[in-house]
Every structure is written in structure tokens, then in C-alpha cells.
């Protein structure tokens, strides 16, 4: 556990000692377990840091609302505690939003940056406000089926019922207060002004079937970050699970290219 401004964060380090370090950052309602499909390949090449964002998994759940800056400073606290100067970053969804904040505000700590299935701005907060209301009334169970339908395509859910059930169990196990505090941070998200300040080589990954953060949201990020490139995957929102091999290939290809 690492203490970030009084909140204990669950951090796990695996993989190659002395190799380049890659930090992975989760989507809303997910724990560090969401990266299992990538771990075998990534740990052969990198030292891999995973963590549970505050309000999630085995990390603390301080009172909300939270903010992107707080999530970013939590990451810097983890790196300082581990005595690691610089890492590559791969964040999916909320993890990609934290990556934008870090790339703009702590550029010296980041080598290459991967922003997967993410957005820098929600023009209309209604979906988040409705979700907050529903979760306050009925818990995460009230929104779980709709969220899972956004995470994974119908084809995948039919083909992979066990994986789908595991993802749903992970979502349902999220602490309600932490989930709500993150939804509040998402309802006011606007990081458009940060994008031109990101100078690290950046890859944007988007899912062709992603309705939560559609290709157009990825394109807005790609066009805002100088020199960024984009890869499209045949997946919904949690593309590292739905297209695990293609996702891993995109990450490894980008991080190893000179
Ligand atoms: O969980 C969802 O519904 C989709 C999502 C948006 C931001 C995030 O982290 O997940």
C-alpha cells in the first residue's frame, strides 16, 4: 500500500527488474485485474506497475468528489514512493484521462503515452448525472447491465460468457461511494486545453464499437496532441479485454518502435 495524501493505494509491481517501466491505469468500475489479458506479454518486456484508483478495489475510499488532478497526483505519489523517475503510460478510459493530465502537468515523468478508449471532454454531462442518480437510488446493480453492454459488444458477451461474468462481478464489487465520486469527476471533465501541452510520443487507441468514448472522442484527442497517432480496434469500450491480442500488439509495437 502506498500513502497518497492520506489515501492508501493498492499498488502491484510485476515483471522484468531493471527493464523499462510501464504503468497501467484502469477504467471506471475496474480494478488492476482488468489488465490480466496483457500481463504475460507485458511482464516479459517491462516492469509493470498497476494500481487501484482511489475509490476502487483494495484502495481507500475517501469522501468525494474526486478530480483529475487528485488522480494524477496519486500517480506521482506512487512513482515517488517506488523511487521511479520515469515510466511509459497506458491508461484506458479514466486511465487515459489521468494520462492526459499527467502528460501535460508532469511531462518529465513520462516516456511514451497510450490513451485508450478515452475522452478529453463530455459536451453533455446528462449521462453521468443520470448514472449518479440511478446508483444513489439502486446501487451499482441498477446500472450494471447497461454499463456491461457498453464495455463489451453483444457478440463478445455471447461468445465469452465467463469473461463477461468476471467483468460484471468486478464492476458490482466497486465501492459505491468511490464509484459515485469518480462519476462526479467525469461529469465535469474538460481537458481540451491540456492536449497541446502533451509533448510525449502518444498513441490513441479507439474502439470501432465504443459508444462510451467513440472514435470521434479519440480523434479529438489525436488531433489535439502534437504528432499523436491512432489505432482502431474492432471492440467496444474495454478493448484490452475484447481484443486482447490486438491491444497488446498495439501497445508493444508502439512502445518498442524507435
Ligand atoms: O464505465 C463506463 O460506462 C464507461 C466509462 C467512461 C469513462 C470510464 O472510465 O468508463
Question: Briefly, what is this?
Answer:
This protein is α/β, with parallel strands linked by helices and 258 residues long. Helix content is 46%, strand content 17%.
Question: Your description of this structure?
Answer:
The chain has 11 helices and 9 strands. Helix 1 runs parallel beside helix 11. The longest helix has 15 residues. The protein has 258 residues and is α/β, with parallel strands linked by helices. It is 46% helix and 17% strand. A 7-stranded mixed sheet has the order 3-5-4-6-7-8-9, with helices on both faces. The structure holds the ligand O=C(O)CC1=CCC(=O)O1. The site of the ligand O=C(O)CC1=CCC(=O)O1 has 10 residues, from helix 5.
Give me some keywords for this one.
single chain; 258 residues; alpha/beta; 9 strands; 46% helix; binds the ligand O=C(O)CC1=CCC(=O)O1; EC 3.1.1.24; 3-oxoadipate enol-lactonase
- SS element count, helices: 11
C-alpha end-to-end distance: 35 Å
Assembly annotation: single chain
Outline the low-pLDDT stretches.
none
Q: Which ligands does the model contain, each kind named once?
A: ligand LWBT4IAB
Radius of gyration, in Å, reads: 17 Å
Total count of strands: 9
C-alpha geometry: globular
Q: Portion of residues in helices? A: 40-55%
Q: SSE order in H/E notation?
A: EEEEHEHEHEHHHHHEHEHH
Strand residues, percent: 15-25%
- Major beta sheet, strand line-up: 3-5-4-6-7-8-9
The structure class reads alpha/beta
Mean of residue pLDDT values: 97
Sheet with most strands: 7 strands, mixed
